[in-house]
Amino acid sequence: TKEMGKNSFQFYFPELNQWSMQSLILENKLHQALEREEFVLLYQPQLNLQTGTFDGMEALVCWRHPDRETVSPSDFIPLAEETGLIEPIGEWILRTACWQNMEWQKAGLPPQKVAVNISARQFNQLNIAELVGQVLRETGMEPRWLSIEITESAIMQDVQKTRVTLRRLQEMGVTITIDDFGTGYSSLSYLKQFPIQTLKIDKSFIDDLPEGSDDRGITAAIIAMGHTLGMLVIAEGVENEAQLDFLKGRGCDKVQGYLYSPPLLAENLAEMLARGSEA
Ligand code: C2E
Ligand code: CA
Ligand code: CA
Ligand code: CA
After folding, report:
1. How high is the mean pLDDT of the chain?
2. In the structure, which protein residues have their CB atom closer than 6 angstroms to any atom of ligand 1?
3. Is residue 259 within 8 Å of 266, Cβ to Cβ?
């Protein structure tokens, strides 16, 4: 899309031209969506396997397009990243997740940690620690109730900058989770140096458990390694009892997935909070 206007090659590649047009239209719609407040955060609860209780949640954005079906983040986050719109959208997500958490706390519901996804561009191009500090001050949320989820590739892009950013977040009291762990290329020596509290095993390793022999090995190794480094390990995309049993057997700390709950609207998550922490 960046080439449009400068180049006329789109005339020779009708498919490319059409794709460019579509992403331009989508980019405009994303702008409007932000102004018209069409984004919604859903919250997926996490289960602590040690205690068998509700233990934190992940905020997941979706786009409620007025005359279309709800658009999943995989269909617009990549374009938002590419165009830079992820910065205002991501700021809205962070602010909304913290604001919602505080609303629940003010209503007297038991506090729970909320994990917010931060995309690579947000992490590397923005002063994310400053933004987090600002949002925490604005909303009055204590830092210990916030966790930041970032991918391995995001933290490995500029390790010098990562070191500074993660240290500032740690000093504030915000926790760091490495998302989709095992799918990227992070170096163990950096993992050890960075103040990371949680590893989240990617769903692709969980899908074929407990049969897939590679996945069994990889999952067990990630859990053991995380524990060796003093981290908590959470598995995402857990859909059935057999997967849960395997993960329990290997000492996984927490799970998140359809088996326990899909992502929920804020009002439904509030009902879970109100029921207390029993699963
Ligand atoms: P992710 O961070 O790995 O999120 C997990 C995805 O798996 C979510 O899809 C969630 O709804 C889905 N999921 C959870 N449990 C299960 C399960 O048991 N089975 C299956 N099949 N799926 C499950 P979603 O909401 O479509 O998000 C997709 C991706 O979009 C996320 O992957 C994340 O990379 C990105 N994303 C979502 N929300 C945000 C956000 O607020 N900010 C940013 N930067 N990215 C986001
Ligand atoms: Ca995530
Ligand atoms: Ca993930
Ligand atoms: Ca994933």
Report:
1. 90
2. 44, 59-61, 72-74, 77, 90, 93, 117, 119, 179-180, 236-239, 257-258, 263
3. no
